[in-house]
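Appendix C reproduces, verbatim, an entry submitted by the partner laboratory led by Prof. M.T., so that reviewers can inspect both the input and the predicted structure.
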Amino acid sequence: MVLINRYLTALCRLLSVTLLTAVSLTSTPLQAEKPHVLKFATLAPAGTTWVQLLHEWANEVRRESHGRLIFKIYPGAVQGDEPEVLKKIRFGQLQGGAFTGYGIGQIYSPTRVMELPFLFNSIEEIDYVRQRLMPEIEQGYRDNGYELLGWMEVGFVYFFSKAPIQKFDDLKQRRIWNWQGDPLGKAFFNASGLSPVPLSIIDVYTSLSTGLIDTVYAPPLGAIAMQWFTKTQYITNVPMANGIGSLVVSRRFFQNLPQDLQKILKRTGAVIGEKLVTATRKDNVDSLETLQRRGMQIVEAEESLESEALQGIRIRAGESLMKNGYIPEATINRVNQWLQDFREEEAAEAVNAVD
């Protein structure tokens, strides 16, 4: 009996040690695995719809990854203007960001065909072209060391000014801001015969306050978010361009993630991108109404988007960008053809509806 008891005691001890060892072996990797940290910068100020949705994205990624992938979001240009953010991504100080067209142009410049001046008449045209161009854009990002996670936009961009601008020639009397170093902005102003004041976006508000500039361009939501509307009284009702945006991370960071985290980041990024597009479009409409209630005056421009003068600017700007290789001629030609196809389809549908 004593021998049996000793045997059972020894067996229990052996089983206990085996169980503890098994638990230790299975749990140690989970305990030791440090979360992957995605440091993510944006120009958008804290509290805006853009930043709120970025935090929603971060929370969803943390939840789905069980805390293995977490964001650290830097809003309000605290990491610098977009060129500075891209530099920090290249050096590994940041891993990603939400970029406007200027930053996107330094990642894959042909994407900015979507921002050619006076190109689009409606959001339907924008969506039609974007859908067809997206595979090329995604590959272009990858080829240049970035992974496109989500597409967003800042919306139609208008001139905000301290004096009314009724016709394009009025701009020749204004001190207009141009985003310093932006090739597309330079092409636009050269094609327009205008001499802008180049400044970092971070310096725009102060420069409006001091009188260094008196005219800026922005979507309504952006003018409110950056507080530029407080220094201007007029908005001209013809959009000069469609402002694009995207959510990106460095390709190196993305490839170093486990495959399941790559899938989570890619899928949720696409979802939040669509949410950003929808929310931004609504907020731009609401923002325009808010600006009017606060006394902003809407100026009816003499030229329409289809006017010969404005379309001439578009053509000359496009030719300049093709010549310097910023946007290939083939890309511009494809977009022009898609727009022609879309407009012909819409015209045919309108005729059929009447019949």
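Strands lie at 36-42, 69-74, 96-100, 146-161, 177-179, 197-199, 215-218, 234-236, 241-250, 297-299. Additional entries are available on request from the coordinating office.
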